[in-house]
Amino acid sequence: MLGRLMQSEAVWLFSRSPAAILAAIAAVTIVLGALFAPWIAPTDPYDLSSFSLIDGLLPPVWEDGGDPRFLLGTDDQGRDMFSSILYGARLSLAIAAMAMAIALVLGVGLGLAAGYYGGRFDAVVMRIADVQLALPAILTALLIDGISRGILPRDMHDDLRLGVITVAIALSLWVNFARTARASVFVERNKDYVQAAIMMGQHPLRIMARHILPNILGPLLVIATVDLASAILLEATLSFLGVGLPADSPSLGTLIRIGMQYLLSGEWWILWIPTLFLVVLVVAINLLGDFLRDLFNPSLR
């Protein structure tokens, strides 16, 4: 099986794409660093006893005044920037992955049903999608967050902040999945294998799940990769605007928001290192998405 995998077209194309290889290395390195942050990070940025104000605003180790204990320097509170970035990436990736999974299930489910059944249900789903497409994703997420603030008591909203921002991002990204799934169903439902399943009396849910869905996974996988990067940026933007995660939860957006306060004071590392880390992560995921798009669409090669 391993031999067949190594001889597959996907591996052959991947081995001849320097951009995809570099993107995969960067993405895997960041994801592994985030997953194993508790074991890799020198300190725990959530533990107040692990840092001291005396160590605040220390530059990276290669700058004059740098401390070997803090590879990328410290912030105003004395937190190790390297540890904060690893934990921040861990939190940002967790939110993005959960939001993308919710958007995938919701969007694909609605798209399959709209394309298969058609009629009024299809019209309602697509009109809702059209309205949402008219709004930028960040405005949709801000609107959902604002509604949750108005409905939920303040203490409850603060306790559910992680869930609220995850759902807000998910409801901003489901449209692409729904439209792609719907368009793919229109192509697949008239093919012989689907018509044969219908004539055999199989339940529509079984037909959609077993016969149609496996044949449209390619485009959905590409969208999932691109939307994962979009979800990371949305979380960073919401946290940067102060409506995402609180300051004591060091997501990448929160770190960038804190670093903006020191943009003109000389402590450049507090802003630029988390920003560079976020840019590398998003670009790497987008490059992998481009590779998958070319892989599933030979006409683009």
UniProtKB/TrEMBL annotation:
Pfam families tied to this protein? BPD_transp_1, OppC_N
Top-rank taxon: Bacteria
Q: Does the keyword Amino-acid biosynthesis apply?
A: no
Organism lineage string: Bacteria, Pseudomonadati, Pseudomonadota, Alphaproteobacteria, Rhodobacterales
Q: Kindly indicate whether the keyword Amino-acid biosynthesis belongs to this entry.
A: no
GO CC annotations? plasma membrane
* Name of the protein described by the UniProt record: Peptide/nickel transport system permease protein
- How is the protein disposed in the membrane? Multi-pass membrane protein
Q: Where in the cell is it found?
A: Cell membrane
| Membrane-spanning segments | 20-41, 91-117, 129-148, 160-177, 212-234, 269-292
Major location category of this protein? membrane
